[in-house]
Amino acid sequence: MTKNPLRQKIAAQEVAYGLWVTLESATISEVAAELELDWVCIDLEHGSLSFRDIVNHARAIKGSQTAIIVRVPAINSDYIKRSLDLGANGVLLPLVRSNEDLREGFSYARYPPTGVRAIGSERAIRWGLRKDSYLNSANEETMVIPLIETAEAALDIETILDVSGLEAVFFGPTDLSASQGHFNEWEGPGVAEDILRMTKLSISKGVATGVVATSIEDAQKRKQQGFQMIGLGTDIDMMIRKTSSLLRVLKE
Question: Which pTM value belongs to this model?
């Protein structure tokens, strides 16, 4: 199995920049790889993307140093197993509420004896041609990243961070805010401070943290705060932002 480039970046204490992919066209991931982004996240939880789209995006970045992470729709054996079988370097688990949720996700992403992932002959092992090399390193190289986006996860963060094999957590400020009574706010009252509290705790335990930035200035701030996985935005959001700024200038 090829070394997971995102794991290497995090282990080297470097900041890994990525793109959130919500559109079907694999050209998006192909361009992301050409731009030398460190990771792309294929979002299966929201929108219309499917397992077929995972294959297309994964093929578009093959041979690059861009990792492919899949945000699965739920902590479910089928979603996690199939995403990894199709070539993902890791999975992002939505709505994690406890260390039990995270340990369950890990079990689906790990082969026995540490997990229950079944052995298939899909794209990850190159249709059986790279079976031994993949199986020998998959448990180590495959990342399982919980989304910290619930009030329950914020309360249980210490035990979540103690789950064996955890290398990174990713924060979802909007849902975290909503779960604490601040609906449709990016960081409601006290949420920004709580994310920083959890970030400092994560770093102290050797676990990297990630978040999607809202602007260049926000990305710079997140870097200074110690985040190692910084999403530059979603594909469609970046197109809207750029187009909107151009239109404002031209219409003035």
Answer: 0.95
